[in-house]
Amino acid sequence: MNMKPAIAALSALAHESRLTIFRALVQAGAAGLPAGKISEMLQIAPSSLSFHLKELTYADLVTSTQQGRFVIYAANYPTMNSLLGYLTENCCEGVPCTPELVECSACDVENANMPSKILTEKDGQRVAK
Q: Is 65 helix (H, G, I), strand (E, B) or coil?
């Protein structure tokens, strides 16, 4: 990844709703989530959700596929991994300061569970939303 896609991805994630949506999609795994389920889970109006998903898709952080009359959205793990790699490739003056970054990938589609709760941070604690 170079600077332009990194800026696009970071800009897309620099909004509370979009970051929450992206984290929900990462948690959902390869199966992704239909737009209606995302809207319901996160209590985001469908029109607002559509706008935010468009921004995340434009930044290549989210993919969408048509399944019948539903549009299923999923996190784009290769882009996420590229962004993480870009952000950490020159850390600590070239000396690794943490163990080698393990690439994240979507969980196995057959074993993917739809999240019933989304974890958020509140006062420094991870809590179910």
A: strand
